[in-house]
Amino acid sequence: MRHLIDILDLSKEEIDELVETASDIIADPSKYEDACRHKILATLFFEPSTRTRLSFESAMLSLGGEVLGFSEAQSSSAAKGESVADTIRTVSCYSDIIAMRHPKEGAPFVASRVAEVPVINAGDGGHNHPTQTLTDLLTIHREKGRFDDLTIGVCGDLKFGRTVHSLISAMSRYKNVKFVLISPDELKLPSYIKKDVMQKNGMEYYETADLEEKMKDLDILYMTRVQRERFFNEEDYLRLKDSYILTLDKLETAKKDLCIMHPLPRVNEISTEVDGDPRAAYFRQVKNGRYIRMALILKLLKEAENEH
Ligand code: NCD
After folding, report:
1. Which of 132, 139, 165 to mutate to test the pocket of ligand 1 (most atoms within 8 A of CB)?
2. CATH number of the domain encompassing residue 89
3. Which of 203, 209, 139 is nearest to 177 (CA)?
């Protein structure tokens, strides 16, 4: 059974295919409106979400399928002490594909070992978020037209920010991609990612605490929220939460074709005055999330059917 737990579960060719399918859906959504008729997607969200859960649901409904699930652990039998494995075995009996978000790193992987239907990791703790990365890749493709030869600034909570971890993994397979890692000292990118992903693939990177230092070199600026729910104490969060606030002033030296991204939700990291700048791509990014998830659901369901 094919699952999506880590972005590297997909080959480069498969990512190209998904981007191509998503682009075809965008060009003519009506072609796909019955593609998943009578199929059921379960969305199991043990952590809060707006975009990821609703884009999955919107994607399945746009394919003519049905959706069921829960949006907080408290309303499921997890509150009674049921294990992830038992919940998944159960939901496998009611659905054809599962998207799952969980605060514990590795929970979707555990789920995939017992599921009888494809499992998609919709975010596991401070670890990975592969479908946000698919959204980001479709956005990069549409905004920049390439995955090679890019200088990408990632700014904010690089320690707990799972979207950044998956994005760096995905980009490690392309040529001449450089990262500028912008964060306060306490929220630096974990060293396992620097070692096992960046250094191993010969990726160039530069660490700084200063958002403006390399602004003029960036093709993409990927802002992130400080991940309050992963902090051990509120004081540290309060001290770090407003480390970076992107304003029009700070974009003074930036390229005219810079692409500004954010997985959202934003708290304070991007001043709303930036929203009207043509370089602000974060709401276009939201839209892309629905189409790439349609492409992913189609692919995984087709592969599951071929298994039987
Ligand atoms: C991100 C997440 O859940 O990791 N949100 C999302 O899925 N678009 C980013 C975040 O919560 O900061």
Report:
1. 132
2. 3.40.50.1370
3. 203
